[in-house]
């Protein structure tokens, strides 16, 4: 009888440890999901501002076609590949525009 009691206590202890591990994993997952939600909330708050900023940058670059050349140029830079002269020029223009003080007017927009 006493032996059965010790076995039951041992089994119960093992189950408690197992449950504590599962609770810890659930807490970690819950914290990870909260962080993801916070990131999404952050970006949703600034989404309109980012859209206005990007539209202003694209306009100063000369349109969507130039923006697409910048995207492909940056892709080639990241992958250590050669760019066309037009892509290289657009990337240089974007560096100049992003360093331009006039772009600050869009940065001072109220959210």
Structural descriptors:
111 residues, single chain, elongated, mainly alpha, 0% strand, 4 helices
Helix share bin = over 70%
Number of domains: 1
> Which structural category fits the helices and strands?
mainly alpha
Count of DSSP E strands? 0
Could you explain how this protein is built, in words?
By secondary structure, the chain is an all-alpha fold. The chain has one domain. The protein contains 4 helices and no strands. Helix 2 packs across helix 3. The longest helix is centred in the first third of the chain and has 60 residues. About 5% of the residues are buried. The C terminus is likely disordered.
Please specify the SSE layout and strand pairing.
Elements (H helix, E strand, L loop, with lengths): L1 H60 L2 H15 L6 H15 L4 H4 L4
Helix pairs in contact: 2-3
A few lines on this structure:
The protein is mainly α.
């Amino acid at each position: 009888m006493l032996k059965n009691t010790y076995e039951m206590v041992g089994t119960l202890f093992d189950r408690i440890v197992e449950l504590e591990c599962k609770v810890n994993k659930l807490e970690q997952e819950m914290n990870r999901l909260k962080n993801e939600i916070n990131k999404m909330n952050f970006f949703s708050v600034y989404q309109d501002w980012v859209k206005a900023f990007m539209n202003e940058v694209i306009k100063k670059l000369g349109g969507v076609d130039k923006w697409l050349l910048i995207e492909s140029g940056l892709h080639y830079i990241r992958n250590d590949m050669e760019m066309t002269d037009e892509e290289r020029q657009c990337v240089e223009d974007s560096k100049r525009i992003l360093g331009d003080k006039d772009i600050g007017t869009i940065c001072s927009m109220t959210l």
